[in-house]
Design brief:
Length: about 325
């Protein structure tokens, strides 16, 4: 299941990275680089190589680098404190026996949970990598450090799940280490790194949309944790059609317009493996935020971050209830 507290991670990471970028780069460059088109500018951005990382070299911004490290540690600490008092909490019914437990939950939320792990790891990697780049660490190393940090944060929670308390009567663990979750975390980190070495993969963008479920709006979800509010989540994969279509069609396709394929599961409630769950599939238009004509390191970070979110756009829903045309697919 999704065990990263998304709201804490995203809020803290956003504050840290935006602050770092504000100090490290000016909002708008006085002499922006020459480029043939926005697509060409994006290609230059993906293939940019900076100087090698040299420990103790004066070109690295160590105050910012220290801030990124301290912020990462603080988020880990907050996650640990949160789950110690919720998911990993022992009580009269559950106790710690010191053993490590495995759980097989491939069917949990009908795969939506695993997609969330892939997405979550990629997003955390994105924020961490941006922090390292703000500290003037070279681009390639920043990508790797971000991915390692993102994967490490996710796997820390998974390992701690393995040591969760067990039921006093049955001996069944409250939670357990999920190999499926761990594999999804690795896929998310791999996807993030692979986009650097294979720029063509940037034509496929992981995205999410979220609107609180009825249970969440009514305060019925424990701890109000949006990461476990599956009924309100949709996972998307956005396609840059401008780059994927044949040339004779591509020239007529607006560069800012993307197509996204979405997946959602409804009726989960408290039982994410119930046979009565309903799957829904979507095809919808989307927006490529990278086509916004704002340049510089700060704005590139903002645009890249926005591209992890599905924009509300017209679309089509496919489910057991038939086909529905939606004015807003979100």
């Amino acid at each position: 299941m999704i065990k990263s507290i998304t709201n804490i991670i995203v809020i803290l990471s956003t504050v840290v990275i935006l602050t770092n970028n504000a100090f490290a780069q000016s909002d708008l460059q006085s002499n922006p680089p020459k480029y043939k088109s926005l697509s060409h500018l994006r290609e230059l951005q993906y293939t940019q190589q900076l100087n090698e990382f040299k420990p103790l070299h004066k070109e690295e911004n160590y105050p910012i680098l220290t801030g990124v490290g301290l912020s990462y540690g603080y988020v880990i600490y907050q996650i640990n404190e949160y789950y110690k008092n919720t998911w990993w909490k022992s009580d009269s019914n559950y106790y710690y026996d010191g053993s490590f437990h495995l759980v097989n939950d491939w069917d949990y939320a009908l795969g939506l949970d695993k997609l969330g792990h892939i997405y979550g790891t990629a997003v955390i990697s994105h924020f961490l990598s941006a922090g390292f780049q703000a500290a003037d660490v070279n681009h390639e190393l920043s990508i790797w450090l971000g991915a390692i940090g993102g994967l490490g944060m996710q796997l820390y929670v998974e390992i701690q799940d393995g040591y969760a308390p067990v039921d006093e009567e049955t001996g069944e663990p409250k939670w357990g280490f999920s190999p499926g979750d761990a594999i999804a975390d690795v896929i998310g980190a791999t996807y993030y790194v692979a986009r650097y070495y294979y720029p063509y993969l940037n034509n496929f963008q992981l995205r999410v949309s979220y609107y609180p479920s009825e249970a969440m709006r009514n305060g019925e979800k424990p701890d109000n944790n949006i990461s476990d509010d599956y009924d309100g989540q949709k996972m998307w994969l956005a396609f840059r059609m401008k780059n994927l279509l044949p040339n004779d069609l591509s020239k007529h396709w607006p560069s800012f317009l993307m197509l996204s394929a979405g997946y959602a599961v409804s009726g989960i409630g408290d039982n994410a493996t119930d046979a009565g769950l309903q799957q829904s599939y979507y095809i919808a238009f989307d927006i490529d935020a990278e086509e916004i004509p704002l340049h510089g390191e700060f704005w590139n970070f903002i645009k890249n971050t926005l591209n992890y979110i599905h924009f509300p756009m017209p679309g089509i829903k496919f489910s057991s209830d038939g086909v529905q045309f939606l004015l807003i697919a979100y």
